[in-house]
Protein: Basal-body rod modification protein FlgD
Organism: Cohaesibacter celericrescens
Amino acid sequence: MTVSALSTLTSSSSTTTSTTSSSLDLDSADFLQLMIEQLQNQDPTDPTDTSEFLSQMVQLSNYESQVSNTESLQNIATSLDTLISSNGLGYLGQTISANGETTSLQDGAAQWSYTLESNADDVTVSILDQDGDTVYSEAGNTDAGTYDFSWDGVTSDGDQMADGGIYTLEISATDSSGNAVTTSSTITGQVTGVDSSGDATYLTIGSVGVTMDNITAIVSN
C-alpha cells in the first residue's frame, strides 16, 4: 500500500505536537522520577557524577520556582481582569451603546439609534432638553427597522447648545390608522467616568449614568 505524502506529514505533525504537549506537562514529580530512573539504571562502572547530579537538582529547583511564579502571575492577572470588569474601569474611554433614550452632548454631537417594530405612516423624531422642552424635531424613517440618529446640538431656532447638556430622544410613530407603533432606542457615547458611590455601579457618559447591565455593545476604543 502506498502512503501519501499528506498522510505522512499529518502523522509526523501529530506525533510532534503530542510529544511537545507531553513535554510541557512535566512537573516536579516527573523530574524526580526521571532522576530516580537515572540512578537506578546508571552504569555501575561509570556512576553519575555528584556535581552533575547537584546541578540537575538546582535546575529542578529553578524550574519549580518558575512554574510557581508563572501560576502566581496568572492568578494576579485573572484577579485584575475580574476586578476591572466588575467595577467598570475597563470601560473608561470606550464608546458604548446602551439601552436608553437620554444622553449627553459630547464634542458637539449626541448619538442614538431607534427601532420601529413595524411599519409606520408618520414618524417624528424629537430632542428634549432637561426641562422636557422640545429643542429640535424632524421627520423620521417609517419602515420597520433600526436607524442611527445623530444630533449636532443645533436647535430648530439655530442655537448651538454647549457640550455637557443632557438630552432625550423621543420617537412618536403611528400607523395609517393612527395607532401607536412600538419603538425602542439606545444611546451611544464615550464613557467618561465610573460612579460606584451607590448600590449600583454607573458608567457616566458626560452627566448621564448608565448601569452596566444596560450596555448592548462596545463600539470602539
